[in-house]
Structures are given as structure tokens and as C-alpha cells.
Design a protein that fits this description.
The protein is an alpha+beta fold and 234 residues long. The protein is 42% helix and 21% strand. The strands form two sheets. It has a seven-stranded mixed sheet, with helices on both faces. Strands 1-2 form a two-stranded antiparallel sheet. The longest helix has 19 residues. The chain starts with a helix and ends in a 6-residue tail after the last helix.
């Protein structure tokens, strides 16, 4: 099966029109038509963008040139490579759809799992994206006393009392809930749950914690010790 036919089959699984796919992938309807009819050979980057869109909505391309619904909407990423892939997915979703990204449970061990150069590049692109789109909010709940606000250019931090805080990282964007475990080998293990019902419930829980939390004592727009020491929280 050609890539064009795969794309058409993937659309069929989601019952999408070509116009819907074009909008979600940031392409024109004419481009989708030409790709699906094999009238053009799409660039690798274009195919990657299309596959990523389908992946976000639970459809994957298989090794035998087919397509299928992803099993139960669950995906697992591991190690530094998995963490980078996760942040690439978050960025691409925000670039295409905007919206509110929420994080709960950030802690120091998060920093050592992401390379410094990549973290710096990710922060730079997120700052630019948030400034350009104007419809993106990034909220993070950290433990009371934590002042590593290294992404404060686009991230709003709040403190939650130590007796309530849990160091298990939950990260929610779009209809995806990510749970990160940093006690695995390799670390971390990231479990992506792509169920709207679960994500909606987790967002409601986050809203409750957000109301319980308070603004930190330290200004969030000041360059903190984290940046000075090469901190890589993203």
C-alpha cells in the first residue's frame, strides 16, 4: 500500500474528511488530495506531520504498510529518547491546537533525565510559540519551597503544601494524560493515556489542586539558581 493509500485508510478509520486532516496537519486540502492519489511524492517532513496527527488521535501506521487503531489508546515511552519524543509531541500539539498544558509533581530528578542543549532548545521554541499563538497557557504545580522556575518565560508556577505534594509527574495536553515514573531503568518510563474521559477527570483534579495552591514567594520572572547551574527543567 502506498503512503497515499495509507493516509486515506487512516482517515477512514477516524471518519475524517480530507478537509479535516488538512486542517489538523496544517496543510491544504489540495495537498492531501495529491498525496492520497499518488500525484506527488510528499516530503519526509510532511509525512511525519501527518503521521503525528493520526498518532495523536489513536491511529498508527504499521510495518506492513497498513494502518490500525492503537491498542486501547495507551503508549509507553522510555529513557532520554522517549522523554525528548514526548516533548516534541507536546510542542507539535501546542503549535497546531494551542490550549492549556498542565503539570503536577515536578521534582529535581526530572532535570537529570533531559539533556541540557535539548532542554534549552525546547524552552526557546516554547517561548516563541506562546508569544506567537497567544492562546497557549502552561501551568505547573510544584512543591512548596521549590524555586526552580526555569521555564517562567512561558510557564506559570504555583506551590502546593508539602503534605499534599506527590513526586509522581502528571502532564496533560490536549486529550492526553502522561504519567512519568523516574524510578525505572532506563528512566523515565512515560505512560501516555489517550482517553478523553480519563484526561477530563485528571484536568478536573488538577483544577482542584490549582485552587488549593498559592503563588510562590519568589518572583517567577527572575532568573533563578536553576538557570545559573544549567538546570534543564522544561
Amino acid at each position: 500500500m502506498s503512503i497515499g493509500r495509507q493516509i486515506g485508510a487512516a482517515r477512514g478509520l477516524l471518519r475524517w474528511s480530507g478537509a479535516v486532516l488538512a486542517e489538523k496537519a496544517g496543510l491544504t486540502r489540495d495537498t492531501i488530495n495529491k498525496i492520497e492519489s499518488d500525484a506527488v511524492q510528499p516530503r519526509e517532513g510532511t509525512v511525519t506531520d501527518i503521521i503525528r496527527v493520526f498518532d495523536e488521535f489513536g491511529v498508527e501506521f504499521t510495518e506492513n504498510s497498513g494502518v490500525r487503531l492503537k491498542p486501547q489508546g495507551v503508549e509507553v515511552l522510555t529513557g532520554e529518547a522517549g522523554l525528548k519524543q514526548f516533548f516534541d509531541n507536546v510542542y507539535e500539539h501546542a503549535r497546531k491546537h494551542g490550549g492549556t498544558i498542565v503539570q503536577y509533581g515536578l521534582e529535581e530528578h526530572f532535570l537529570s533525565s533531559l539533556g541540557g542543549e535539548y532542554a534549552k532548545a525546547h524552552r526557546t521554541r516554547m517561548v516563541k510559540l506562546v508569544d506567537e499563538r497567544k492562546d497557549i497557557k502552561v501551568l505547573a504545580i510544584v512543591c512548596e519551597g521549590d524555586t526552580n522556575f526555569v521555564a517562567s518565560d512561558y510557564n506559570e508556577y504555583r506551590w502546593i503544601p508539602k503534605e499534599v505534594f506527590s513526586p509522581v509527574l502528571f502532564y496533560i495536553y490536549g486529550e492526553t494524560t502522561a504519567i512519568m515514573n523516574f524510578q525505572t531503568v532506563p528512566a523515565p518510563t512515560i505512560i501516555l493515556l489517550k482517553f478523553p474521559q480519563i484526561t477530563n477527570a485528571c484536568r478536573k483534579q488538577f483544577d482542584i489542586f490549582w485552587k488549593m495552591s498559592r503563588e510562590p514567594d519568589a518572583p517567577q520572572d527572575v532568573k533563578t539558581r536553576g538557570k545559573k547551574s544549567g538546570d534543564s527543567r522544561a
